[in-house]
Prior knowledge:
7 helices; 3-stranded mixed β-sheet; two-stranded antiparallel sheet; alpha+beta; single chain
Amino acid sequence: MALPPPLLMSPRSPAAEASPRSSTPCAHPNSRFCAPAAQCPIIDPRWESEEGVPIDAIIFGGRRPEGVPLVYESFNWQHGVFVGASMRSEATAAAEHKGKEIMHDPFAMRPFFGYNFGDYLAHWLSMQSRKAPTHLPKIFHVNWFRKDPATGAFLWPGFGENARALEWIFKRCSREREDEAAKRSIIGWLPEDGAIDTKGLSGNVDMGALFDVPKAFWQRETKELRAYFTQQVGADLPAQVEAELKALEDRVHN
């Protein structure tokens, strides 16, 4: 569905009259410019086909300053649903105005859930048991915002360089190359050393730090997730998600 056209600002509005000397903010902290998707010059002509469109990958992204790698792939569909349900992220102004607090943000859309979270998870899980032929996309998680704990600087340059992580995702979605360039970790499939193309990267990017999976961090993470699912979902939590949480706890412990 196409996004609505951008809202035009009245020339008499306070925001339009704001200047560097004004005490009135010129825009909301999380303001975005939106345009109809149909205006994208490279959009597929069948993007609104009634038959649907093939999806090879679903990519979730969170703002995590520590502990979470640049990119990783879920083990399978069920584990991927758990990865989406377990997402935590630095709050933005679109959520609850809590600044840099790390908040639970399942599927990167917590402020926009419209019905019972447990039912939402069950809906995602049901995709793997549908009778009709279904090609389940691979599920990935990306984190462009990991920081150097010593300096507070971002470890990854981001922006256009993110295409380097996307290239690895494309390779993982190729049936000819999906067995290449990945190694198993406690949280999912990570790129093998050298699998992310770093040629031409400006500056000294510490790939080891970007893909470090520290045990102490994930011990805290699993405790937070256990508390969150218990308090916020309770008896509505699907058994498959509970099983994935227990499996992660075991992997971290071992």
